[in-house]
User: Fold these one by one.
Assistant:
Number 1:
Amino acid sequence: MEQIESIFGISISGVEGLDGDINYSNRKFRITGSDGVKYILKIFPDAQEWMLAEEESIILDKIGHELSFQVPQNIRLSDGSMFFDFEKDKAKLLSFIEGEFMAKVRHSPKLLISLGEKIAELDLSLRSIDSPVFASRHLFWDIQNAHLSLPKIPLIKESGQRKLVQYYLDRFTENVLPIQHNLRHSIIHGDLNDYNILVENDEIKGFLDFGDATYSPLVNDLAVALTYIMLNKTDPWEVVLPMIRGYQKHIKLTKEELELLPDLITSRLCISLCNSAEKKHLGQDNEYVLISEKPAWTLLELWSRTNPIKIKNCFHEAAGFPLVARTPKKHQVDVRAKVSGKSLGLSYADPIYMTSALFQYMFDEVGNSYLDCYNNIPHVGHSHPVVSKVISKQVRELNTNTRYLTDSFNTCSEKLLSQFPEQLSKIYYLNSGSEACDLAIRIARTVTNRKTVVVLENGYHGNTSTGIEISSYKFDGKGGRGIGPHILKLPLPNLFNGKFKTAKEFAYHAMDAIEQLPEKPCAFIAEPISGCGGQVPLAGGYLSYLFDYFSVNGILTISDEVQTGFGRLGKWFWGFQMHDIVPDMVVLGKPMGNGQPISALVTSKKISDDFTNGMEFFSSFGGNPVSCEVVKSVLEIIESEDLQGNARVVGDYFKSQLQELKDSFPCMADVRGEGLFLGIEFLDKARKPDKSIANHVKNKLKDEFILVGTDGPFDNVIKIKPPMCFTKQNVDLFASTLDRILRSTDAL
Ligand code: PMP
């Protein structure tokens, strides 16, 4: 330090190391002179850093004078130079700016307006700078290079968080990367995080650390600042309006810049989160490196739950742009009524006009977000980035029919069949659960040369003619023509309020009924937990009692796993495993393609051989490479995100929370199901099915932005079957909302 005293002619009374500060790349000290004047000493350990520091100094020299706030000033030696040898390194002195870090103060609207304004002022002054050195840099922190963080995604340990970052970086690649070169470019500060902004008396005092300056879209300075100001806020979108209003006092945002801002902010969050993951992976993490990690996750997660239209409109409003207006719902309702038959229904008397969805959230046209507790088709979550990528990649490569050999068909089949007991070794692909059930019956009738199918009361197995024929839910329901020939309907083995009290009684009754038929049936079809029957698990032991009898009598067994398959039940990957039996055929659908239309029938070699009678099996779309790649990705995601484990843990928690509520509300007569396939049955005071309260609850939940459905023969059961990434926090929200609804319901 004596060296500095002699070079600069100051006497030093204090030195404080700032190493390990948020600006961790250089060695930094705060030096206080005996006259109370403070300086920053920066030491540059290698030539490159020194060269960049030289460039930074040139910028500071050029912009320092005309601004209404401060930036660090270069302190020169008597010969006018800035750098001096300090031990083995180069060093320089900068002026010290008094003030508090933006990160440490309350953000009043006035301060935020002032911040926006000063950022614009800073950017305007930087526009005149021409710095080939900074312009040629390719910094991963620079939002325009967010794609450089993509390879770091695997370093994020938690699978849900990985998925989130993948989703938002994909948005960068799709929405920003192709058009960012058209935006206004300039030398920008590049790192306006809240530790590089100083505040005094609710005013912006200055900006620090120009070491990340780079040539980038102008709007990125505003985007970085917004990112950090939005952290740790209950309502992060509140800061957008004052900051943009302030910014626009000097720089008017273009339409393109404004539209991209939300994606630029999420991109910067992702860059920071990928950097934290990398630093942890390399063991280089410390308090300062990870300072924004937790709030960044919180913000990104909140972002993913927020309706994109709401976010967009918040930016539009702030910038004075017209709000996004979707086609009015009334118009959609009218068009729908015009083009579609009335037998195609809509959920809710006032239907929801959905515009997008992400993971377990769905978004409507006016900016609302719904917690999806109902849709089991997006099994691994709505808009899962891996599924989206697989579809778009395969669609560009090959999408053809199964009369050609393809990798996709074979690898998908092997992967899927590896989830089954060994004897179930053959697969047929179709496009819907209905088609797969239809094929199951066709196979059973062909193989056994018999006709009669045994079904369960209130079962549903599809919309084809055969589907309706075997679905009591349809033939016994509204508009149904009653049971047809060649169908034997058995009572649903429901231990809550079914016809008998034990599985054995149900099974004996079934065998008796079959014995009375003029010919033995060809097949028995059932779901392991009856969905349309009201989420009723078949009585434990019922199927194992019957399966020996079926086997002896050559009656083929079909497990309809359209709803229960793919790990939804938590403890089991397939519903038949819950009943400790192996059926002859298994029907798969809904979750298999996460929304891509694909279904399958899985059976044994023997049955498959017996079905081969010369008539070809072919489905134009079934088993095409796009669908097969999607199925593979669904299986991989279930594994990599441990969604079956999640269904078990969150499902058990869900059930326990509902059971607790059941103790307080007698109308909740039964809570049942497994994993994330649950039902709540409502009864009235006379213990009769209470459709009206189930319906009331469903509609009230909708008013609170939670989606469920009702079902069962009396429509008095609330069905819960959410995307498998459902969380305990989602359960808590559901349970507290249900509690509130039931408390304020007069009928109780
Ligand atoms: N089986 C079951 C158990 C189902 O729940 C459904 C659909 N709800 C089907 C078959 C028919 O599937 P899809 O709608 O894909 O034709």
Number 2:
Amino acid sequence: MSKLTSSARIFVAGHRGLVGSAIVRRLEADGYTNLLTAGRAELDLRDQAAVDRWFEAQRPEFVFLVAGTVGGIMANSTRPAEFIYDNMMIHATVVHAAHRTGVERLLYLGSSCIYPRQCPQPIREEYLLTGPLEPTNEAYAIAKIAGIKLCQAYRRQYGCDFISAMPTNLYGPHDNFDLTSSHVLPALIRKFHDASQLAAQTGEPAQVTVWGTGSPCREFLHVEDLADACLFLMRHYHGDEHINVGTGEDLSIRELAELIRSIVAPEARILFDRDKPDGMPRKLLDVSRLHELGWRHSIDLERGIRETYQWFVDPRTPEEVRAASSFSV
Ligand code: GDP
């Protein structure tokens, strides 16, 4: 049996995205020397034959399955076919190839949107499949639920040690700041930043339009905390049940907008565009299982936003800019 030693062969599927790049940075910082990655041009993760060939050639022992097509509320509701097809295919090909080539352990990353729209809050793991999903991200949620069920099925039938983690809304460096496809936190950082620059040029007061009513609540986890949790689970968790990963604290979109405003553009006015969808009213994860296992987040939201904003304004290489505007997790 292979151990997760510093020379273990570890495949990070989706290494260019928000999560994958944070996991790679974390593994490198911890001294892991045998990291395997594959760019899109090299390997289409939706292609089973190509994925099989790649696994046979590279023989990873541990897999972080954090690749996928992701996006915010607008991208999810306007491109459901891509969200369901890409994600179902990627999860299936990688899990199947991992089983075929005898991968020691695989961590699959889902999303908190798997839970029913009208879930009791905070959301416990066992609320999965107890009610209808939020329509704005149903296609993505179905693919993510299929990923959990894949891991469980391969565990039950073949004894694979494949585990699932369900993170809350994530943010941090290398996020997607494109306003049509991003999630709310990077979108608002960008909107306040742009509004402040525009006001400086025109002399007009800065103002930012926030989608929806501002009343939905969301929980946010810094991606470096998530990378830490993924490594923790890879080392210590061997269960069949998926595990929620979050902070256990949420705030309204209005409060989030006010917090980001205080950091980026304190002078800006906030307007609400009620024609845009609110999505889930609330999705606060119950993280007691994770806490019982011994893991807690460490980056508080204000510090995380400050660091992310700094990353956003810092000069970047063209490669980093391209990665930050792609749809991959
Ligand atoms: P969700 O958590 O899957 O709903 O994804 P988002 O992060 O895209 O949206 C979260 C909430 O923020 C929703 O209620 C959105 O309507 C709201 N929101 C407010 N302004 C924005 C914005 O500029 N972009 C995005 N993506 N969401 C926004």
